[in-house]
TrEMBL record:
Entries under Pfam families matching the protein: DUF2157
Name the record gives this protein: DUF2157 domain-containing protein
Keyword terms of this UniProt record: Membrane, Transmembrane, Transmembrane helix
Superkingdom of origin: Bacteria
InterPro entries in the record: DUF2157 (IPR018677)
Residues in DUF2157 domain copies: 10-157
Transmembrane parts of this sequence: 40-60, 66-87, 107-127, 133-152, 157-177, 189-206, 218-236, 242-258, 265-283, 295-315
Length: 330
């Protein structure tokens, strides 16, 4: 029995579905009709990325013939046009999850935000309008992105805004830089990252309490999780590691609870992974103060069993999460 039949049967067992409704639903699914909406939206998102990438390549290859002023003027006009139609079709600011009637305008907002960030970076790099304070252009870009996110209810713009704030600190949150990141060797960066991560968490809690874009919770908490966890890992490999050990434990517990609250398996998985990394660093820290030569052979025997057991427990934890979240939906 597939998922659709199981769900129909559950509704019948709970007397939430009449026989006529059951027949109508089964007839509908038997026709094999499916929606192309997600595919079309993905293509729209891809088209925005390709367009902005194409603009960058075009500028790079023809900068000598086009000229900086003409490029900036064209970008500015395009930004104004995008925001003009976005404001025109927008329903105005609302705390709730109110979207455009036509989803195409979401991607118009995204295009305007990306071009705005590129525009600010361009004028700073080329003309140094803010002098040596390159961070100012980043802060302005972050403000534009965040304001657009909350006004137009756009999660992509929200991600760009938070990324800009994190970048202004000199921290990167990418898989490649997870292992090799400046935050590991610069304690000041880890403190700044922790403060920003905590501020994002506090903003998420405050927004939820006042009912402001509660559906932004997943985006906010995802960034906060990565930022706080990476900074805690950086702290664990530095001198005052015991302080970061408590911070790591507290943040892991917080995000563990939040993952169930908002039913976000991505946050749950990364919380387990970061917690596992932090726990292993803690073990290594303890081994630094022991005479490792006395039991290194036993350690080599235990190590494979330890990792296999960890993998098994990780898989069981994922299954348990799915079971609990599915039960809460019934």
């Amino acid at each position: 029995m597939n998922t659709t039949n199981r769900n129909i049967q559950k509704l019948l067992d709970k007397a939430l579905l009449s026989k006529e409704q059951e027949i109508g639903i089964r007839n509908y699914f038997s026709q094999g009709i499916f929606s192309l909406r997600n595919e079309l939206l993905f293509l729209m998102y891809l088209s925005v990325l390709l367009f902005t990438s194409g603009v960058g390549v075009l500028i790079y290859k023809n900068i000598d013939t086009i000229g900086h002023s003409l490029i900036l003027l064209a970008m500015f006009v395009l930004i104004v046009v995008c925001f003009y139609f976005s404001f025109k079709e927008s329903k105005g600011f609302s705390k709730a999850d109110i979207d455009f009637e036509n989803p195409v305008y979401n991607y118009l907002v995204l295009l305007a935000v990306i071009l705005s960030c590129s525009f600010m970076g361009y004028i700073q790099f080329q003309y140094a309008v803010f002098g040596n304070y390159f961070e100012i252009s980043i802060y302005i870009s972050a403000f534009i992105a965040l304001a657009s996110a909350y006004y137009f209810n756009n999660k992509s713009a929200l991600s760009i805004g938070i990324t800009a704030l994190i970048t202004s600190l000199g921290i990167s949150l990418t898989p490649r830089t997870l292992i090799n990141n400046d935050v590991y060797w610069n304690e000041t960066l880890s403190y700044y990252g922790l403060i920003l991560g905590l501020l994002i968490v506090l903003w998420s809690i405050y927004s939820k309490n006042i009912g402001l874009k509660k559906h932004f919770d997943l985006v906010l908490l995802t960034f906060a999780l990565h930022l706080i966890s990476i900074c805690c890992i950086a702290g664990l490999i530095n001198d005052i590691w015991f302080l970061f050990l408590f911070l790591m434990a507290g943040s892991s517990y917080f995000f563990y609870q939040k993952s169930f609250e908002i039913q976000a398996i991505s946050i749950y998985i990364f919380t387990l992974l970061y917690g596992f990394i932090g726990f292993n660093i803690f073990i290594v820290r303890l081994l630094e103060h022991t005479n490792f030569e006395d039991f290194w052979e036993l350690f080599i025997i235990i190590l494979p069993v330890y990792f296999i057991t960890s993998i098994v427990l990780f898989v069981k934890a994922i299954k348990n999460f799915n079971k609990k979240t599915n039960d809460s939906l019934q």
